[in-house]
Amino acid sequence: MSKLIYYVAATMDGYIATKDHELDWLYDCPPGDDATPYDEFYQNIGATIMGAGTYEWIMKNAAGEWPYQDIPSFVLSSRNLTLSADINAIVTQDNPKNIAAKARNAAKGKDVWVIGGGKTAASFADAGELQQLFITTIPVFLGSGIPVFPVSQAIHVIPNKQRYLYSGAFETIMDIKLTQ
Ligand SMILES: NC(=O)c1ccc[n+]([C@@H]2O[C@H](COP(=O)([O-])OP(=O)(O)OC[C@H]3O[C@@H](n4cnc5c(N)ncnc54)[C@H](OP(=O)(O)O)[C@@H]3O)[C@@H](O)[C@H]2O)c1
């Protein structure tokens, strides 16, 4: 069955961006050539989900090019957010359960990438709708920033795979334990 996967890069102290939404720490210390290639991950993805914060960050930093045009994206916002014209994405105010069902359906048998940010990924985990975490941990501490996974309850995980990279980064894949 199609999985919802939160695939993200984080610091050693658990942040995905500085408080000012900067990612310089990641660009300054890329995971390296032995990291799982992005294309290998992306070829199994049939839809994406992201929060308004991540959508706005992408629009500001992706030089006008929507990076996921080949697959449908769901952008969560409680505001009347107007998306850039002609991008393959919709804004939704639905709850995580319904969005997960719609995204799985749209992904046509492939997995769904929960791009982030932390708040969005956590809300899907809290709703029991996230199946896997794929975190690339970069060897840097920031001391403060946007939290990687601010869940509102304990989420137990089963380690699936861990790989240390030459850069000092490491990839951790964890399956989320189902609760009854
Ligand atoms: N390091 C990485 O790999 C990586 C990956 C992704 C993102 N990021 C960074 O993460 C930052 C954004 O993360 P974030 O955690 O602050 O924000 P986010 O999860 O991207 O967006 C949160 C916003 O989405 C809207 N929303 C509506 N329904 C929601 C729901 N059920 N759950 C959660 N959000 C909902 C809310 O905005 P409204 O006010 O519109 O309702 C909320 O403030 C950016 O700086 C981005 O660059 C880093």
Automatic annotation (TrEMBL):
Residues 3-150 form the Bacterial bifunctional deaminase-reductase C-terminal domain. Transmembrane segments: none annotated. Pfam families: RibD_C. InterPro entries: DHFR-like_dom_sf, RibDG_C, Riboflavin_Biosynth_HTPR. It comes from the Bacteria. PANTHER family: 2,5-DIAMINO-6-RIBOSYLAMINO-4(3H)-PYRIMIDINONE 5'-PHOSPHATE REDUCTASE, DIHYDROFOLATE REDUCTASE FAMILY PROTEIN (AFU_ORTHOLOGUE AFUA_8G06820). This is Dihydrofolate reductase family protein. It comes from Xenorhabdus anantnagensis. The lineage of its organism: Bacteria, Pseudomonadati, Pseudomonadota, Gammaproteobacteria, Enterobacterales.
